[in-house]
Amino acid sequence: MGGTSTDVSLVAALQPLFTSSRLVADYPVKTQMVDVHVIGAGGGSIARIDDAGALKVGPQSAGAVPGPIAYDRGARR
Q1: Secondary structure string (H, E, C) spanning the chain
Q2: Cα–Cα distance between 75 and 21 in angstroms, integer?
Q3: Does the predicted TM-score (pTM) go above 0.90?
Q4: Cβ neighbours, 10 Å, residue 6
Q5: How far apart, in whole angstroms, are the C-alpha atoms of residue 15 and residue 54?
Q6: CB of 77 within 8 A of CB of 68?
Q7: Are the beta carbons of 74 and 68 closer than 8 angstroms?
Q8: d(CA 28, CA 16)
Q9: In the chain, what percentage of residues exceed pLDDT 70?
Q10: How many degrees, rounded to 5, is the angle at CA 48 between CA 46 and CA 73?
């Protein structure tokens, strides 16, 4: 479930940019793939510094449980 982020990639001269190194769930993946980055738009996500000193954003949220629309928790129609 998402809604406050988007995936972006650069396409130049009709060719996508590729990479052969990426972290997936904090594991290194070494294979050719389109270079895609995720940009978060906020939505109440909380940024913090983890135990290793790295900046992390989410999955903690500033109030969504999981939100007013999800899982029929919104207002009745």
Answers
A1: CCCCEEEECCEECCEECEECCEEECCEEECCCEECCEEEECCCCEEEEECCCCCEEEEEEECCCCCCCCHHHCCCCC
A2: 44
A3: no
A4: 11
A5: 32
A6: no
A7: yes
A8: 21
A9: 61
A10: 25
What is the separation, in whole angstroms, between the first and last Cα of the chain?
22
Q: Which residues pair with 23 in a beta bridge?
A: 28
pLDDT digits (tens, 9 = 90+) for 44-56: 667 788 899 988 8
- Output the average pLDDT for the chain: 75
Distances from the Cα of 40 to the Cαs of 15, 25, 33, 46, 48, in angstroms? 25, 16, 21, 11, 14
